[in-house]
Amino acid sequence: MSAFHTEGTMCLATGSAAYIPSDRRKPHDPGAPGSSDLAASSLHSRYRSVRSMTRRLAATLSAEDQMVQSCTDASPVKWHQAHTTWFFETFVLRPYLLGYKPFREDFHHLFNSYYLSLGDEIPEKKLRSSFSRPSLEEVVAFRAHVDREMERLFKQPINEEVTRRVILGLSHEQQHQELALTDIKHAFFSNPLRPAYQANTLAKERADQVPALQWLSYSGGLREIGHSPDRDNPLDFCFDNEAPRHWVYLQPFRIASRKVTCREYLDFMSDEGYNRPDLWLSDGWETVKQSKWHAPLYWERDPSDSTGWRIFTLRGWYGLSDQFDTAVCHVSFFEADAFAKWSSCRLPTEIEWEALASQELVRGNFLESGRLHPSVLNGAEGVEQLFGDCWEWTASAYTGYPGYKPLRGTLGEYNAKFMSAQMILRGGSCVTPADHMRATYRNFFSPATRWQFSGIRLAN
Q: Are strands 215-218 and 246-250 parallel, antiparallel or unpaired?
């Protein structure tokens, strides 16, 4: 994901090359070759499901809640709802539905993010909370208008290009579902009242026996990484930064069987981890001093807890003692790297991570669990927690794979221009939709980023 809301560029993996959208758009031709009825039905059902999830995530938030933007990395929930709808209007309905009439013409400019080829940038785009108008009611009406028009589109034969763009828009909206929860957590933490997003019902998370960290050895050699198109699935999808699939050579490596826990991270803090410049990259040490970091984001001192700390979650405050054995999260790459050095270890590369994860099922604590916070691992064996709970920082900088070419046209602005000063994360989090995740998925943030659900796995 990008420096400003981490939306990696999107492509569909087809039977051959990665999908490259054309700017030479023309109205949808009902007589054009279409995908199968089953694929069209599945696409329609998936559209309804994804859009419904966004509504559910926003349902408990007031209009005032949805106006808040607590940092420049974040956006108001109202804007998330509008921007994801703008995407379908801009890239699907306007070019491909005959007779489509935009809800409001000025929304085309207002809810753009950073597609400069579609119009001049709004100077205040990083202060989206200043947009008191349109009202939340009008944004909800905008969503309803686009949904009705999409229903009209689905009643027609859907050709391959329209299918691609709808799937692309759905993956884009799922990214924003995760971002909306990440942003509202930061907004509520920034509020002096520290309200909870959901009822304070998070179970105490002290495992009877957290499995000891084990080191799993993997042989080196040639491996293929990157998305492999599923020719039998017309709804197969990848972002363009996951392609092309290519060969890499791996040295033998060892990787930790699970993520680093809050208990283990507290040991690092107790050993003056935030006061030892020898553990930190130069930019990281400067960030620690300037930002006065002394713990992960959302940790606060609490003398009433046996650990001396409490953690703010989407369900409110919990003593660290109740979450001691959950995966530590909301740490930056700088903190993850410093912890790895303190442990006489390192962070895995994204190639190592994918070579391992591609052999595992995508399972874990995702958005659908309703927990909205990392969970405890109880007595598991082998490699665990690769997916869900929190994104794992890797030692890999965000660049294109060998043979990568930026997309042509407007959507080319989505990804390639962010391949600078960003680090790769893998695996998804407790607020990532489960069917949005795959072993090849590449998330990316600047190394000082902490507001995302990001954690640590060690390697050596």
A: unpaired
* Mean pLDDT for the stretch of residues 197-201: 84
Is the four-CA dihedral 174, 332, 298, 438 of positive or negative sign?
Answer: positive
pLDDT digits 0-9 by tens, 27-40: 444 444 444 576 78
Query: What pLDDT was estimated at residue 121?
Result: 53
Q: Structural domain tally of the chain? A: 2
- Alpha-carbon distance values, 26 to 18, 73, 95, 121, 150 (Å): 21, 35, 6, 26, 17
Residues 118 and 241 in one domain: no
Q: How far is CA 122 from CA 83, 109, 118, 126, 139, in A?
A: 14, 8, 12, 9, 19
Taking the C-alpha atoms of residue 165 and residue 170, their distance in angstroms, rounded to an integer, is 9
Count the residues in the chain: 460
Q: Give CA–CA dist 43/47, Å, rounded.
A: 6
Is residue 428 pLDDT above 60, yes or no? yes
pLDDT (average), residues 408-434: 86
Which CATH number covers residue 407? 3.90.1580.10
| Separation between Cα atoms, residue 126 and residue 57, nearest integer Å | 23
